[in-house]
Structure formats: C-alpha cells, structure tokens
Amino acid sequence: MLSGLDERLVQTARRVGEGFRLAVAAALTKPIRVEGLRSALEQLRPAVVWVPSPEELRRAINAGELMLHLQPIVEAGSRRPLKAEALARWRHPERGSVSPDRFVPVAEAHPELADSLTLWAIEAAGQCQRDLASRGLDLAIAVNISGANLRDLRFPDRVQEAVRRGGAEPSRLTLELTETAAFQDPVRTADILLRLRIKGFELALDDFGTGYSSLKVLKQMPFSALKIDRSFIADLPTSRDSAVIVGAVIDIARHMELQTVAEGVETEEVAVALARMHIGALQGYHTGRPMPLEELAVWLT
C-alpha cells in the first residue's frame, strides 16, 4: 500500500511497484481518508478463486460453451458506429458466467490452446459480421490475437481459413495485438503481421502506451490503427499530463496515416474532450457496453 502528499509521485510509485509485479492494494494521497483506507483493506480479504484447467477450457471450446459479446466502436464526432470489438464470454454449465480474466491467461500459457481459442473467436466473429451484413448492418468486427499465436508462420493461413468458415471477408475484420505481445519476437511478429496485411486484414496496436517500445512498434510493424490505453483516457479532463500525451499520440498517428481509437471512454465529458482533440473513434461503456449479437443488432437500429 502506497501513500504520499504528491498525487503524481504516488501514481509513479504505483507504476514502479506494478512493474516489479508487486500487488499494489492502493495508492492513497495524504491526508488519508478513512473511507479510502477501509475500501483498500476490504480488497485484501482472502478469496477462493477458481481457475480452469487447460482441459476444461478445451472442452468448453469444443462444447460450444463460449460466445462473443460485441462492444461498439463509434466515430468520435458523429457517434456513428464504425465497428465492434469481439470479447469472449464463457457460459459454464455449473459456474455460470466466467470472466475472460480467468480463462484467457490459461489459453495463453498453452500455445495450441491459444490458437484454438483465437481461431474460434475469429470464425465466430466472421459469422457475426455476416449475420449483421445480411440485416443491412455492415459493421466491421475486431478480434484480439496474442503473442502465443505468433510463433508459427502458418498462423495467417489458419486465420484466413477461419474467416472463410465464418463467411466473412478479411477486410471486414481487424486483428488487435498489444505492443508487449508484438515485441516478444519482433522479427517473426513483423513477418506474420505482414502476411496478415497482405491477406487483407486490418491490424490495430492495442493498449498503446502501456509497453516500453510504443513508437518503435509503430515504426517497425504494419499496423493500420492504434488504440490508446484507458489509463490515459479516464482522467483526461483533469490531468494535464494525460491530455498532452493523448494529443501527441493523436498527432503522431495522423502523420503516420493511422486510425486512432480511445479505449475506456466512460463519461460524456471525456468523449467530448477526445472529439475536440480530433481522435478518430471512441470505445467504452459510455458509448456502448459489450452485448450479445441480437442485442447489438437492436442497438444499431
């Protein structure tokens, strides 16, 4: 637990601690309020957390227990829907809804399972895109891929086949990758991403600003869009530092002819501030929460 008089130094200390993989319960600015301290201590209560085994996740994929929820991404100025990000959900027959935070790390620790999960999501996203298009709602879909997927040069061909099975065109799908994942093996990653771009897929650099080589990634990898991490967005109206950083990123992206998306837009105040900064698109609970396909179709009309 961290505390101090200077909010900026406290938050810097927090990031340093998290960089060393320390569990930071709270970062409190002095004078410390009792309510804030009590809330932080409550979070330290021990809890039994179920973590699925690789076999359980593999069975769930094969049994059709996973589904996609789709979160809209809208144009900043007009709020016109541009695309939707596909987010995996697990409907466990006994445990109910299982958070992706529980099962995605399990998949990423086992490369073959990571491929199975990603290819399932891409095929399912293709089906969603085709379904929406058949209703006159031609919305592009974004799907996350991980560093675990980028070890095999055959991955682009497998992605293309999954899209074909889903009934969509590669140009209507965007593949999102974090900068941390991109630099696990930069040469092989650049090779695989280039093959995906040649096949017609759009590529987005996700969580931009959270890694250590953001600008280097932009220079070396064939991305067509970048998504600014929510950590720079939440306090945008009140933090001069965040505003300066976000403005600089938008300016760099414009000169590199990259699309820009702000993640974690939770209030109208933030949305308006971003639009004034000429961000390209917004994503967050304020502009649209993740929802099942049928609910999204209604939302779009």
TrEMBL record:
<dbReference type="InterPro" id="IPR001633">
    <property type="entry name" value="EAL_dom"/>
</dbReference>
<dbReference type="GO" id="GO:0071111">
    <property type="term" value="F:cyclic-guanylate-specific phosphodiesterase activity"/>
</dbReference>
<dbReference type="Pfam" id="PF00563">
    <property type="entry name" value="EAL"/>
</dbReference>
<protein>
    <submittedName>
        <fullName>EAL domain-containing protein</fullName>
    </submittedName>
</protein>
<feature type="domain" description="EAL">
    <location>
        <begin position="50"/>
        <end position="301"/>
    </location>
</feature>
<dbReference type="InterPro" id="IPR050706">
    <property type="entry name" value="Cyclic-di-GMP_PDE-like"/>
</dbReference>
<dbReference type="InterPro" id="IPR035919">
    <property type="entry name" value="EAL_sf"/>
</dbReference>
